[in-house]
Structure formats: C-alpha cells, structure tokens
Write a structure and sequence with these properties.
InterPro entries: HTH-type_LysR_regulators (IPR050950), LysR_HTH_N (IPR000847), LysR_subst-bd (IPR005119), WH-like_DNA-bd_sf (IPR036388), WH_DNA-bd_sf (IPR036390)
Number of strands: 12
Organism: Aerococcus agrisoli
Protein name: LysR family transcriptional regulator
Keywords: DNA-binding, Transcription, Transcription regulation
Family: Belongs to the LysR transcriptional regulatory family.
Structural class: alpha/beta
Number of helices: 12
Largest sheet: 5 strands, mixed
Radius of gyration: 22 Å
Shape: globular
C-alpha cells in the first residue's frame, strides 16, 4: 500500500464516483478502480458496495476511511516538517479546526501577524470535533481549534480564544420571535435542532444534555444535523429553535432569523486552541507567544 495513494480512496469515499475521483487526481478511472481493488485484496475485505449508485462504503470501508485520513495527515505532516528542516525555516503549522465560525475568531490575529511580518506559515485541515484530541495528541496536526470539552488528554495545553453563553436562534413567525430574552421554561416547550453527536463531539454533546438537565428541563431535540450552517435551513423550514455563540454574525439572514439571549442558562461554551504541552516545535512556541501578546492589547 502506497500511503500517498490513500487520497484516491478518501476522495472516492467522499464523492462516491470513480470518474470524479479520477478527474481530481489526474489519473484514469481504471487506475482508481485497480487501486481500490488492490486495497480490498490486501485487507481481504470489501470497502465499497458497487451495486448501488452512488457507491456506498461498507462498515469496513467506514472504519478504513477514518484511519486513512489520520495516516495520510501524519504522512503529509512529516513530509512538510522534513522539507522545513532542509531549508532551516520555522516549520509550517498544521492547524486543525472544526468550524469556519471558530476559525474566523483568528482572522484579526492573522492580520496582526501580517503587520508584524511574521515568518509563520500555515496549513489548515478541517476535522470532526471527536478527532481533535487524537489529532493533537498523536501529532497528526500541531494545534487544533475546538470546544474545550473535547480536549481530554492531560498532556495537552489550551489557550482560550473566546467564551460565552449560547443564544437561541428563532425564526420569524415563531411564538418566541418577539422576545428580547427567552426564559428557560419557554425555551424547552418548543422543538430544537442541534448538531449531531458526531459533529459536535461526544464530550460536548453529553455536556449539552447534562446542562439541560441542570436547568431542570428535558430538551425536545426534533432534529440533529451534520453541518452547522444547515441548522438555519431547518430552523426556518420546520419552525425550530437553534443555537449559536454570542459572536455569530446573523446579518446575512436579514429579518428571517433572530438571535435571542437565554435567561439564567447553564449552556456556556469555550473555544480554545489545543497543543501538546511538551512540544519542541519552535513555530508553536512563537505562535502562542504572539497570541498571548495580541490578547493583552
């Protein structure tokens, strides 16, 4: 198995189409098919069900996909670091993130680094919340941006980027739309939409449920979704209530959606940057030093 060719499997898994996978990798469809067949022969299992359109991964294929992503990221990370050693420059920082909204919290800091003519270079990789601890712990990435609750390993350090209290997102026409503040007794009377446990991360998802119980209510979760932005579609289409952070910009939705604070809620969040405490990477030390200085301004 050639590690760099794992990208063929990953692309096929994500798009479900041999022709599209071949186009993305500038190879023939036959080459993609031969590689997948070789993988299946090597592991003596079927990775895809080819009798449906688009093709679907088997259970073995789903497991292989998760592991292949980690292995390919580690290999690419090693390639980059070896290249940095040869040129005697600061290593490129591989930054994992779980949400575009979280990543936007670093934009002003990036402008600050640019003004200082910082030598830092970055590579971004989007991952699931459930993977952040593993990715940082095993140096698949250098740092990860996510909920504090997803960093469980004791040998990881975190730097707080932002924290606050979740607010409700209510569609126009909903009984609570005119409220300036929503009481918890009113909130829990209506069906809600949340990110799924897979997308939110098992620790954060469990904590959300625990906080609802601490509020003294049982949440009516009508739908769970995989993509943060798609929540707003369901909020409008099915008259549900969703949740966003205090910083989330709702202006793009005009008067169709309203962000409303919750009264006396336990639903808080903390977005942090996680990295290995024992890291010897000079680029990480430089980044954290500059980030600390920036937050003191």
């Amino acid at each position: 198995m050639y590690i760099e060719k794992l990208k063929y499997f990953i692309d096929l898994y994500e798009c479900g189409n041999f022709t599209e996978t071949a186009r993305k990798n500038f190879i023939s469809q036959a080459s993609v098919s031969q590689y997948i067949t070789a993988l299946e022969n090597e592991f003596q299992t079927s990775l895809f069900n080819r009798h449906v359109t688009p093709i679907q991964p088997t259970e073995q294929g789903k497991y292989f996909y998760e592991q292949a992503q980690i292995l390919l990221h580690q290999y690419q990370n090693m390639q980059q670091k070896m290249a940095d050693f040869s040129t005697n420059t600061l290593p490129t920082l591989k930054l994992a993130y779980t949400s575009y909204e979280d990543l936007s919290q670093l934009i002003s800091f990036m402008s600050y680094l640019k003004e200082k003519e910082s030598p830092l270079r970055f590579e971004l990789v989007k991952i699931s919340c459930k993977d952040v601890d593993y990715f940082v712990q095993n140096e698949v990435c250098d740092m990860a941006l996510s909920f504090l609750d997803e960093f469980q390993s004791k040998d990881l350090s975190t730097f707080t980027i932002t924290k606050g209290q979740y607010q409700a997102v209510v569609p126009k026409g909903h009984p609570l739309f005119e409220n300036e503040v929503i009481a918890l007794s009113d909130l829990y009377e209506y069906p809600l939409v949340l990110l799924s446990e897979e997308r939110m991360g098992p620790n954060t998802f469990a904590l959300m449920q625990e906080r609802s119980q601490r509020d003294g209510y049982k949440a009516q979760i009508a739908k769970t979704i995989e993509d943060f932005e798609s929540a707003f579609f369901y909020v409008i289409a099915e008259n549900l209530i969703g949740f966003v952070t205090e910083e989330y910009d709702m202006s793009r939705y005009g008067d169709q959606l309203k962000k409303i604070p919750l009264a006396s809620s336990n639903h808080t969040y903390e977005i942090v940057l996680g990295y290995r405490t024992d890291t010897q990477n000079p680029a990480i030390h430089y980044f954290i030093q500059e980030l600390t200085s920036y937050h003191k301004i």
